[in-house]
Amino acid sequence: MKATGIVVEYNPFHNGHLHHLEQSRVKTDSEVMIAVMSGNFLQRGEPALVDKWTRTKMALNAGVDLVIELPYAFATAQASDFAKGAIFLLDALKCKSFCFGSEEGSLRAFLHTYELLTENEASYNLAISTLMKEGISYPKALNEAYKLVSKDVSVPLVDLSKPNNILGYHYIEAAQMLHTQIQPKTIQRVVADYHDDAKASETIASATGIRKILFDDNDLSAIKPFMPTTSLDALNEWQSTADSFGSWERFYPLLRLIILRHTKESLAQCAEVTEGMENAIWNAATTCITFQPFMEKIKSKRFTWTRIQRMLTHIYTEFTWKQLREIELPTYIRPLGMNQKGQAYLQSIKKDLQLPLVSRVAASKDNKLLQLDIKAANLYYLGLQSSYGQQMVGSDFRIAPIRI
């Protein structure tokens, strides 16, 4: 069976994701669609709206055949490491191709961009370093350096100021650096950009826009036009069972407790905490009783909101620089769910897999990456501050991969 991979968060699964899934299947002429999906914490450094099991059900009910968990260390990493972990897993799963959504929509432009930055790597990195010394953020330095090395280029290039283009570029980069045979494809995003608010006249909205409606209005009926019925049903079930959606506002009391039980020196040992940010984070936690004022107090031109949230995620899970530096690539394949086609595909490649297949966590609990996933899941459920969350602590040991 021919398989195509996609890299997803599904936070939550909406009509834009459904379009991407269906078009990826058509564009690659594949029988099996495999999604590598982030667990309970996401690449922008925030808790998922609903847990990985609920998002797995959304994916399977919408047509994904096999859902694999992207380990915490990669799911919460900067774009290049996020992409590296995901593409490595899709290649390990014998996917013939991977297909990503982008604002660009042209694979040719991505390949030209990769060639340009590879050929000009030294001058590009020097420009980034010089710009960062001037006090601007890393993403802005990347964009300005890119403008410098591409100013006289006539071939089509990708706009690397767009979030999905950035991820797409890193998927291409990862596939090249890992020397994989997996073939890249891209599909242009339709209607809503990554951060757009949802609009009543449309049926496709960004996940950001959908979450904004939920947090502002707490009204599930208002997001009905933007997602499949099965996704809306899953959100309704979650709300009635879990009582609350995952967010830093909800998690902040526990985050604050964790910050203040540390010294500033020990906060500096947490991954991505750098350049004295431990002082700003600790000081803000002593005075701010809710998350938004806390973030506004520590925000700076040097660090983006997302970068700071990733610091906070690693403080929350107590994931350290030492642990981060010891990690190179995923060390296992963990299925979260599958349908009959996905199960048949997994069975057909099982003997050829180069990584262990983890269906029962208890059998592989000594794996350091897996220990991080289990810890992150438990802390996610505690952060919900509900009886359901309390009951779900330890659920990685109790819940088997979902089958539909």
TrEMBL record:
Can you tell which superkingdom this protein's organism belongs to? Bacteria
Cite the EC number.
6.3.4.-
Subcellular location as annotated: Cytoplasm
- Please spell out the taxonomic lineage of the organism that makes this protein: Bacteria, Bacillati, Bacillota, Bacilli, Bacillales
Question: Where does this protein have coiled-coil stretches?
Answer: none
In this chain, ATP is annotated as bound at 7-20, 101, 164, 189
Catalysed reaction, written as an equation: cytidine(34) in elongator tRNA(Met) + acetate + ATP = N(4)-acetylcytidine(34) in elongator tRNA(Met) + AMP + diphosphate
BP term (GO), one: tRNA modification
Q: What's the name of the protein? A: tRNA(Met) cytidine acetate ligase
Kindly list the residue ranges recorded as spanning the membrane. Answer: none
Q: What is the scientific name of the source organism?
A: Psychrobacillus lasiicapitis
GO CC terms of this entry: cytoplasm
- Which terms does the record give in the GO molecular function aspect? ATP binding; ligase activity, forming carbon-nitrogen bonds; transferase activity; tRNA binding
- Any Pfam family the entry gives: HIGH_NTase1
The function of this protein is: Catalyzes the formation of N(4)-acetylcytidine (ac(4)C) at the wobble position of elongator tRNA(Met), using acetate and ATP as substrates. First activates an acetate ion to form acetyladenylate (Ac-AMP) and then transfers the acetyl group to tRNA to form ac(4)C34.
The record's top EC class is: ligase
